[in-house]
## 1
Amino acid sequence: MNTLYFAPGACSIGIHILLEEIGAPYGLEKVNLMEGEQHKPGYLAVNPKAKVPSLKRDDGSIITEYPAVAYWLAGTNPDKKLWPADLESQVLALETLDYITGTVHTHGYARIFRPGNFTPEETHHDAVKAKGADIGAKGLAILEKKLAGRDWLCGAFSIADTAIFFLCFWHVTRLKGELSPNLAGHYARMLARPSVQAVLKQEGFAT
Ligand SMILES: N[C@@H](CCC(=O)N[C@@H](CS)C(=O)NCC(=O)O)C(=O)O
């Protein structure tokens, strides 16, 4: 059985959704990021990068990094069609996953939520957050255009949609922001999926 190391409402929520979409039994291990559990020896033995998500597989081996975990889940469950079939869509999915996890999340939203990771100087925190907000807004604007005329990024639901979801989730629930029309439609379609409803309930978010 796969076990997901997650934190409620963190980017790991997208991997949690994929596990629900797949429908096979899985385990959950909560990591308390607020209390710094990610930096303690117990979790560092799981993921020395001190981040969630991490996925422990049947044989005890661990995979980390959102795109890699999502890709492995899609690849090991081909019947669920979570990875697009055609090359153009695969490239779009990769491009989007990389941009979200490598730039919009880690350079943008991480600056807003954890300015202390970017500077120890508290008087600089507002400037760090403002820079993060710029990067986040640019990211959402780019995704808004990519979703024009599409219900799902690659035509059919794929692992890339779960990454778009966690950004929108943060924007709406943590930042109390409004989504632009295509993202709002995507977010509503995600919320309508039973997998997303189940995960929100399990992670303690009432809908
Ligand atoms: N590159 C990693 C980034 C994961 C990441 O930054 N996760 C956040 C939660 S959304 C985290 O674990 N933060 C803990 C910390 O920064 O101390 C991935 O895509 O999986």
## 2
Amino acid sequence: MNRLTVLQAIIDKIAAQTYLEIGVQEGKIFFQIKAPRKIGVDPQFMFPKKAKLKHLLGLNKGETYELTSTAFFAEVAPKCLAGGVDVALIDGLHTYEQALQDVENCLQYLNPNGVIIMHDCNPTSRANAWPVQASINEVLELAERGEVPGWNGCWNGDVWKTIAHLRLANPDVNVFTLDLDWGLGVVTRGRATNPLTGFATANLAAADYSLLESNRQELLDLRPPSYFKTFLETL
Ligand SMILES: C[S@@+](CC[C@H](N)C(=O)[O-])C[C@H]1O[C@@H](n2cnc3c(N)ncnc32)[C@H](O)[C@@H]1O
């Protein structure tokens, strides 16, 4: 199981009409997803030649917007997403603040039975969770200089804080994390079934990876991959 199979199973289960992907890169997931309407947003698409040609010819289907998610939600979404979003993948800039803004913007358009999936919510090392301000290049440059101890080429950023934030601050959404594919955050409408208490959102921005290491289960509401079947049945 990975984000592609999880997303497609949800799309099929709820007969989703509109799929939104924030952060598309090469389109590995975007072009494989089967949904009646697909919308992809990325400030710098990196489609391989063949995929790009197929996209231009309309064989690789999907509406694509070469914009940051912030610009997309400000300028394009009011019209483009007027019919709502059924399933979204949030996989753009992997910072606490940007992922939170992306989820909150997405919630403005999420249809009542819609689902948001967030990628990279469960980093397993300090290096994987290295925080950046505005770009992945910050950590890549540090890693090249040997200044990220334990660097293994995988980067998740601090999106884990976004999960904790949503679980603390938004009682009208239900959020848990599937323990697969670097942690898939699952966000749906409805009261939280397992609310997080005992932590404060005000402390999250300055929090270190050690907070996650010591409280992983609780902060993320981490569920085994087998739980996905149970979740699907609730949709
Ligand atoms: C991890 S990749 C996405 C991978 C893709 N979702 C997949 O599963 O194959 C992250 C992408 O986010 C894009 N990105 C970076 N900043 C962004 C922003 N502010 N808004 C939207 N996308 C952004 C990058 O250009 C990059 O292509």
